[in-house]
Design brief:
Blueprint (H helix, E strand, L loop, with lengths): L1 E6 L2 E4 L4 E9 L4 E9 L6 E6 L5 E3 L7 E5 L6 E6 L8 E9 L4 E4 L3 E6 L1
Parallel strand pairs: 2-11
Antiparallel strand pairs: 1-3, 3-8, 4-5, 4-9, 5-6, 7-8, 9-10, 9-11
């Protein structure tokens, strides 16, 4: 089992920055890919960014060049999302996600609210 706890959300003005953090506990040695998803009211949950165990990253087109995902390479139990140049359309609940190997499982955090005012 892996437990994920997000922090760092809040209210920010458009153009501002926030950094989200996600701490994993439990069987962290099995964690493979970690990711951030978000869900805005009335919309489906969408992938924002992901990072593999080897450090490869992928971003949604809407956040590329504004957001940066990173993880603690030593302990592999922290993942971060640096969000710059925030826009009102970035307003959503942001969720941390992790998948594990060799036992294939997928875990979610409880989410953290990000609100960007115009």
């Amino acid at each position: 089992q892996v437990r994920l706890v997000e922090s760092g959300g809040g209210l920010v003005q458009a153009g501002g920055s926030l950094k989200l953090s996600c701490r994993a506990s439990g069987r962290t040695f099995e964690i493979n890919t970690m990711a951030w998803y978000r869900q805005a009211p009335g919309k489906e949950r969408e992938l924002v960014a992901q990072i593999s165990s080897g450090g490869s990253t992928e971003y949604a087109a809407s956040v590329k060049d504004r957001f940066t995902i990173s993880r603690n390479d030593y302990t592999k139990n922290w993942v971060y999302l640096q969000m710059n140049s925030l826009k009102p359309e970035d307003t959503a609940v942001y969720y941390c996600n992790a998948d594990t190997r060799p036992v294939r499982a997928n875990y979610w955090g409880q989410g953290t609210q990000v609100t960007v005012s115009s």
